[in-house]
Amino acid sequence: MTAPPNRVELLRTPQLLLDLGRVRRNAAAMSQRALAAGVALRPHAKTAKCLEVLHLAHGASYGPLTVSTLAEARFFARGGFRDLFWAVSPAWSRLAEAAALAAAGVRLICACDHPATATRIAEAGVAAGVSLPVRIEIDCGYGRAGL
Q1: Residue 38 pLDDT exceeds 70
Q2: How far apart are CA 120 and CA 71, in angstroms?
Q3: What share of the chain is helix, strand, coil (3-state, %, to 5)?
Q4: What secondary structure does DSSP assign to 4-31, as a single string?
Q5: Is 73 in contact with 84 (CB distance < 8 Å)?
Q6: Which long-range contacts (CB under 8 A, 24 or more apart) does 136-142 make?
Q7: Which of the residues 12, 74, 81, 106 has the least number of beta carbons within 10 Å of its own beta carbon?
């Protein structure tokens, strides 16, 4: 006779299981570290992909987030997060979508790793009548990306 399956084996996948106490402790620790360093906490949404966890990361408020895709940006904007950093230098074909998010009231900061991209981001913002702030990505010596 085989042993009955435990509760985890009965779960359908994919399935997210969290130790809520640990999530809360980690979120509080990160908030304290950011506060002590004098910087704003801007967690990366791709790590949690969960509104509730990112809400906890900001002490039950809707603070700034980092996203990798416009789909993430739209999802988290609909969930109440309105200050987003799109941390991937955008393909020029996606800039109208970025401007549409800004027009909907989202502060969408765009990463940029080339002067021509900065120009295109500015042009997309002007065409839509919105501001699309830019953060310049700097290559710190690893040759991975940036100016």
Answers
A1: yes
A2: 20
A3: 45, 10, 40
A4: PP-HHHHS-SS-----HHHHHHHHHHHH
A5: yes
A6: 136/112, 137/89, 137/111, 137/112, 137/113
A7: 12
